[in-house]
């Protein structure tokens, strides 16, 4: 007897009901023709192809009646369902309008391209790019031609990083061009100068422990940084009661396009919930990561104090040209994240932090084995199995394996979106190149259009006193990757992964037994005592830690990361919308909180 399955999802998703006989660019007859030619799309074809048994079942020995296998279910209808889901997802994504993509105008404004990223290409002694080389890059990103990318003129041995990645067509989620970010700060603007002042202070405070970034601190450098940031006319970082404080110093923010401005130019800066609460470092970077019956301790390999790079002009110019960098000297003792330098090293090799957070969240507390236990956070209330009496989720849907697959997929797709902005829209200069403009203005009396708030800053004076040049001191010997600054790729990964994790787990769950590094011995932790720390708040904090860590290394402006977090969030929402179309479970959507505090159901 043939079973006729009830495909209840069609009624849950009106988009699917509209995908039937009317199929744009792929007719019903062509669909039937395609299915008839593709024997592997039928169970009968699969059985015949793999086992060698004929459809009539007359090939000697024990035979299999293929028609009986097919008859166990209406497979043709399942195929039709799969087709309809994919078309519905494609149609829904096609209907998303392409927003404005305004730039800061620097590429057109400066004929010598001083406001644009050109690292890895050849430069003159002032660090100004060879224009023929720059034209070879802009030709490639205009034609999208693989051979043109192969013909980009490089200045050294370092290569462009994944320039064609954004040109791949994703089969899930919207296209990168359908996600907007506000334009980055212009080269000559006070906003860019303010971000530069913050970066110089981050370099000066690279080895100051995080416990000194508290409102009761007496650290003179911390207080000097706070004082100067409060005087800047256009600083966009977090504040408490309208002012930058030691507690808010170097904490994260997120930047959206202001939806009230249809031009896409106006930015909206927010501080996500939880970012200013409690310790500077997220619990997900301080707790053991369960790994089955093993665990991964959170202590890190970090660089020794004094590992500061690109402050020598010839070293700086070599890196601009794509030359081989120096190497780091590492501390032989691993420890918990304790300083800005530690956080920059934590963010130096992106990728694993959010996979670890998923394991911490999903693994139960284990009193008998506390080292390899997690925090046992409840699933998001929208999970259809939370209240089920007979079922639970798994690797196929609504369980850890499914979540892990989404995290990996999200990382790839958000890089495509971030690199679209980097290569094909903005091509914004990196902080290290800006530092070269500052240095040459002061030392070589060039007249680059750099705002006075950075040229006259205490941060610049202190940096020169310590390092002997006006170049921005970097924590990474190689400086930045060979692609432009805006938006940050690692930050986009943080945005997409934090959002997916918030969709999967109960954001309001209070993390049990939180810890902080021991101020007297950062190879140990001690209990944290203070305001409760929630899953949602600490995921937001992890995302901004991860993002600001790149700034502590010197390679990103604050808004590179803050805009990328919003972009990653949008990619996550897009993927979750597509994923939802395919579920068989009765599912009303995941409700979670965006970085800007608004609730959304996907």
Protein topology:
Elements: H1 9-12, H2 14-17, H3 28-37, H4 43-51, H5 66-70, H6 75-94, H7 106-109, H8 131-143, H9 146-150, H10 190-204, H11 220-231, E1 254-257, E2 267-270, E3 289-291, E4 294-296, H12 313-320, H13 340-348, H14 353-362, H15 400-426, H16 431-443, H17 452-455, H18 458-467, H19 489-504, E5 515-518, E6 521-527, H20 535-552, H21 558-581, E7 591-593, E8 599-601
Antiparallel strand pairs: 1-2, 3-4, 5-6, 7-8
Helix pairs in contact: 6-21, 10-11, 10-18, 13-20, 14-15, 14-19, 14-20, 15-19, 15-21, 19-20, 19-21, 20-21
Outline the structure in words.
The strands form 4 sheets. The protein has a two-stranded antiparallel sheet. The chain has a two-stranded antiparallel ribbon with strand order 3-4. It has a two-stranded antiparallel ribbon with strand order 5-6. It has 602 residues and is mainly alpha-helical. Helix 15 packs antiparallel against helix 19 (489-504) and helix 19 runs antiparallel to helix 20 (535-552). Helices cover 40% and strands 5% of the residues. The radius of gyration is 27 Å and the shape is globular. The chain has helices at residues 9-12, 14-17, 28-37, 43-51, 66-70, 75-94, 106-109, 131-143, 146-150, 190-204, 220-231, 313-320, 340-348, 353-362, 400-426, 431-443, 452-455, 458-467, 489-504, 535-552, 558-581, and strands at residues 254-257, 267-270, 289-291, 294-296, 515-518, 521-527, 591-593, 599-601. Mean pLDDT is 90; it is low at 1-12 and 20-64. A hairpin with a 5-residue loop joins strand 7 (591-593) and strand 8. The chain has 21 helices and 8 strands. The two termini are 38 Å apart.
